[in-house]
Amino acid sequence: MADQSTTIRLTLAQAIVRWMANQYIVIEEQEQRLFGGGFGIFGHGNVTCLGEALYQHKDELPLYRGQNEQSMGFAAAAYAKYHLRQRLMFCTASAGPGTSNLLTSAALAHANRLPMLLLCGDTYVTRLPDPVLQQMEHFNNPSLGVNDAFKAVTRYWDRIVHPAQIIQSLPNAIATMLDPGDCGPAFLGLPQDVQGWAYDYPAVFFERKVHRIRRAAPDKQELADAVQLLKSAARPLIIAGGGVQYSGAVKELSHFAEAHQIPVVETIAGRANLLATHPLNAGPVGVTGSDSANALAEKADVILAVGTRLQDFTTGSWTAFAQEAQFISINAARHDAGKHCSLPVVGDARVALEQLADLMSGYQCPQSWTTLAAEERKQWDATVAVNVAHGNRPNSYAQAIGVINELCDPQDRVVAAAGGLPAEVTANWRTLGIGTVDVEFGFSCMGYEIAGGWGARIAQAERQPDKDTIVFTGDGSYMLMNSDVYSSVLTGKKLIILVLDNGGFAVINKLQNNTGNESFNNLLSDCPTVDSPFAVDFEAHARAMGALAETVENVSELGEAFKRAKAASKTSVIVMKVDAYEGWTTEGHTWWEVGTPQVSESSKIRAAHEEVESSRSKQRRGV
Q1: 478: domain range?
Q2: Is the entire prediction scored with pTM above 0.85?
Q3: Given 361, 379, 397, which residue is the final one in a domain?
Q4: pLDDT tens digits, one per residue of 543-553
Q5: Cα-trace Rg, the chain
Q6: Dihedral sign, CA of 74, 78, 84, 89?
């Protein structure tokens, strides 16, 4: 350890970057850099000082230049998700709109509990040049600015007004981002003048620091209560969430389920906790789930929820389960463990499952319940086979999913988000490899698909360079954010992107129609301000950004195009039109609460409102 009296004179920006370059983490008994690098777009507020510092460490902390700050944040989130929150990226943006563009991606990371460090330009602490370019002035609160908006969408927030403050703030930010119970994005506002101010930092501050993810053991009494309740169960069910993977508890989950023959259902974030062929895998649960999982959910008497925040798409807005069903929630986050009066087991999922298994010795789920689960899953597999089959019918999302599922490598990574594709992937994708599915539905954020694919591919290339990242996106999300097709080409991070064009926002049009409304402003053909709808040439657009691209007419051609994309060495975009009305997966849906008008001149809307409200009696009221 360095002499405590030894100091190094650095600017604030230089100190931040040097400190980041010396952070390491132990993963599977090996030390790796905590930061895989960063994403950055320079402008005033970060180019002169932070840019200078990053240049000095460009080998240790590679900086990927994004095309849009929001997509940079999406890429950073996907990178952290691939690495199971054990490695992360930083993002840097200029003061003003460059930084505010990161708000949506910070919200996505916050909702999904994903770490990323935001290093953003800020206005001058001295206020001598105010008002500066792109400054948001508040006449009655001069300290308030755009960066304060990040307080709502980050787990840790600080504005650095003196270089010495990072001695405390940086370790606190890392501690938050690596805490399984409090994980999420961290934000540091870096005023433009303070970034360049020098300070005599203790040399010890920059010594190599090795981090380890904390594994909190659950309280013994909470475990004992959970065991007592589970052993009383006649129809137990396990809900496996994304936290199972983040904890590295996939094997423990499988062993626990197998030892006691308890059926397992998966959340959207928990897809790929079990292979599709696992005999206890009863399918995805909830609004975009499966008939098999939802049939079990409504009959289960004790539900063990592991690593899930019990979002409404998992719980069917709390109608998917019997009113009298009792919940046990294993979660590192106290807030999640106690939801809906669950019996909480606050702690690491792996540790909790290991200890629970020891205490559950001798318990066996009734054979009739396990047999029912297997029968339900068999029927659901038959339903999926029909959904993905292609023949003399319009192209659909499910058919495209089936073709790719059949041809991909078991370790290829699948990325989807927002719109209709998350539901279709969740319901119809048959998991071939553990942890290979990234369906971003925590924030249900359009535009994540290609940007998230790029971030996932950067991470995948570090560990599985011979595998592919496959992106499913609709035309709406593609139009919203597509510039990382170009990023993937520039950086040599190959993607296979399926653009499934249904002529607008078809899934919201479906919701609109299902609630009695007329089609309006979702499909291009139904937009009153559109003069003459025309099809975008997505193939030509992708080619213009340097990708390989082709358009196919049907799913048979899609399969051949996918084979060519697999064989190619750079990003490929495959475009296929799908029907906006036909081919949706209609099975497996639980009730979902959406606000419908209590009063309307339309008889269809009134009837739809009554139909929606007819299921409300099943809704659990938090007890």
Answers
A1: 389-577
A2: yes
A3: 379
A4: 999 999 999 99
A5: 25
A6: negative
